[in-house]
Write a structure and sequence with these properties.
Blueprint: H1 3-17, E1 21-26, E2 31-34, H2 36-42, H3 46-49, H4 63-76, E3 87-92, E4 98-110, E5 113-124
Antiparallel strand pairs: 1-2, 1-5, 3-4, 4-5
C-alpha cells in the first residue's frame, strides 16, 4: 500500500468514526458525503441524505441568508468560518425540530475552482432567536 493510499484510508476512517458531522455538498447543494455523526445529529440516514439538497437542513427563515453566503464562498473560494472561527446557527432535523450547531466551513477545490463545500458540524445549545 502506498503512502497516499494509506493516508486516504486513514482519512476515510476519520470521517466515518468522528463524533462530529462531516458533510460535503456540491456547488448546487447536493449532498455528496454524510457520515454517521451527521445521521445521529440530524436524523436522516446516509442513504436518505446522499443526493438530496442541503435545503433539508436549513430552516425556512435562514434559507436566503444561507444561499447568499454559500454562493459567496463558491465564488471567492474563501470563508470567514474556518481557521477556528465557527458559524453558530440553528439547523433543521428530520423530525422538523431544530438543533443549534457550530460549524467550520471549507471550500473544496478541483483544478483551481471551488466545486464543493465541506462542513464539520457539532451540536451546541440553540442560538437565541434560532
Amino acid at each position: 500500500m502506498s503512502e497516499s493510499q494509506r493516508t486516504s484510508a486513514l482519512v476515510e476512517q476519520l470521517v466515518t468514526k468522528t463524533g462530529d458531522a462531516v458533510i460535503i455538498a456540491s456547488n448546487d447543494g447536493t449532498i455528496l458525503e454524510w457520515n454517521g455523526a451527521a445521521a445521529r445529529i440530524f436524523g436522516w440516514t446516509r442513504e436518505q441524505a446522499i443526493g438530496e439538497n442541503i435545503d433539508m437542513m436549513i430552516p425556512d427563515n435562514q434559507n436566503d441568508a444561507h444561499w447568499t453566503g454559500y454562493d459567496q464562498v463558491l465564488e471567492s473560494g474563501q470563508t470567514k468560518f474556518s481557521d477556528g472561527n465557527l458559524l453558530n446557527v440553528s439547523a433543521q432535523k428530520a423530525d422538523g425540530t431544530r438543533v443549534g450547531v457550530a460549524m467550520s466551513i471549507t471550500p473544496l477545490q478541483e483544478e483551481g475552482s471551488t466545486t464543493a463545500i465541506g462542513v464539520i458540524v457539532r451540536p451546541v445549545r440553540a442560538p437565541a432567536g434560532g
